[in-house]
Amino acid sequence: MLTEAVIAHEIGRSVSYSRRTNFYTALSSYCSPHYTYANVLPVLEELKGLGLVVEMRARPGDHIRTELQSRYCATPELIARWKAKAADFTLYGLVRLKDADGNLIHYRDTDETRRMVKELRGINEYLASHTLDLNAPDAERIGHHIKLDGAYYLPTTTEIYRVFNAGSFKLGGRGYWWGQSLSKLRRAGLLLNGERVAEPDFKQLHPTMLYAERGLAPPGDAYEVDGFTRDEGKLAFNVAVNCQRGQAGTIATLLYKSREIDRRTGLPKWTRGREETTALVEAMWKKHAAIEGALGTGAGRRLMNLDSRIEMDILKRAERAGIAALPVHDSNIAPVRNESKMAEIMEESYAHVFKGSKPCTVRVSGGNVSQMPSAPSSLPSLSPSLVLERAALAGDFQQAIDALKEPPENSALSGKPMQLDFLAGLDGPAPIQEARVMAEAYEGGIAPEPVIRIVRDLRHKTGERQQDLAAHRNRY
């Protein structure tokens, strides 16, 4: 309790606790066995008497009316007497169950919960053998915390726990760890075992899953609606999938987001008025008529349960491949050199859960097609914008510039790779012709985007690896 008070004091906060017995019953699966009603209240009185903490006691019922519980915080006396250099962290409750209001609730152990705990322990034991660092020169270290982009993070051991929702182990279940709420830009600055990371992600995971359940493929880009940006369409679709009150609830939720401020941009998360929002939602319903029964029905938590099963399979496959990987819902963080392999693992895991369905494409950084030579640099073979972005995070602009240069003529990397020869025989619409021309002109370095796109489409269509496409080029 004293340690919690000191850590909270670092960022000007207090520690919440409860004076209700049933609160501790619910937490029995998630806290130290010593953290009980019988221990907490008398210990708190003793600490107050010693002048080490100050209590702010809530009135009965405040936790319902204002969601505010009783709190305590460290006094100057405690801070002055605190001698510990660092605090040890122990993660309790690898499997967590919340009610409809988001409160942790008690559950009885079953064969399934024991299986999940055992599975997570195995994953966490593997992750414990790897190091994770945040490469952010502008981060401010405050005691145990890191302050970054106006938010505080508490780096602990890199362990994963799963959270299920609405009192059911069939809803939710995604994995979480301390750095998951970092922005995508900041996650690109993480280092795994001292290596830069990539973050391959599923394209349109939930739309693809909803259509796959009906034996269908999504209609092109699921998030595109005429007259609106793709980001607006994506937000509207995700709200529709998670909302339980049909079109009206989706519209109301989007409009409510106009009151919420995006921490990174400082702008409202939603800027459209009611009329435009209604038009977008109606267009979204029309576009996805084939899965209309899933929109506005709260299907999101069920889909999260499915994607959490995919994710657990991904993490176990990654371990067998000797790759350190961390989940971020529909993407995975892994060392750059393992990005292509991680993409294959993710596709395999999706196919394992959704047997016989249309594949779900995994998007990689942009320039790293397997078996294709890259520029001679310690930076990955990424799209120019991502190379510059990641190098900027590390403060190494010269390395970014070097990574974008073509290799010298006498370099072993120069010369057209044999794996692209099969493109010469392709015939078809303009995009294919564009890729063919670029492939013929390609001499190493970062591969042109049209080439990458065509190769990847062929891989998904045929199920073959790139080297197999090259070996069997007469088929295409």
Mean pLDDT: 81
**Could you give the order of strands across the largest sheet?**
5-11-12-15-14
Beta strands, count:
16
Main beta sheet strand tally, sense and closure: 5 strands, antiparallel
Name the helicity range.
40-55%
Count the helices. How many? Answer: 18
Strand content: 5-15%
Question: Radius of gyration, rounded?
Answer: 26 Å
Question: Uncertain runs with pLDDT below 50, 5 residues or more?
Answer: 367-418
Distance between the termini: 67 Å
Q: Which structural category fits the helices and strands?
A: alpha+beta
Shape: globular
Helix and strand topology:
Elements: H1 2-9, E1 15-17, H2 21-26, H3 37-49, E2 53-56, H4 62-65, E3 70-74, H5 76-81, E4 95-97, H6 111-127, E5 132-134, E6 140-142, E7 145-148, E8 151-153, E9 161-164, E10 172-176, H7 184-187, E11 190-192, E12 195-198, E13 201-202, H8 205-212, H9 230-242, H10 246-256, H11 274-287, H12 300-320, E14 326-327, E15 332-335, H13 339-353, E16 362-363, H14 384-394, H15 397-404, H16 430-441, H17 449-462, H18 466-471
Parallel strand pairs: 4-9
Antiparallel strand pairs: 1-3, 2-3, 5-11, 6-7, 7-8, 9-10, 11-12, 12-15, 13-16, 14-15
Helix pairs in contact: 6-12, 8-12, 9-10, 10-11, 12-13, 14-15, 16-17
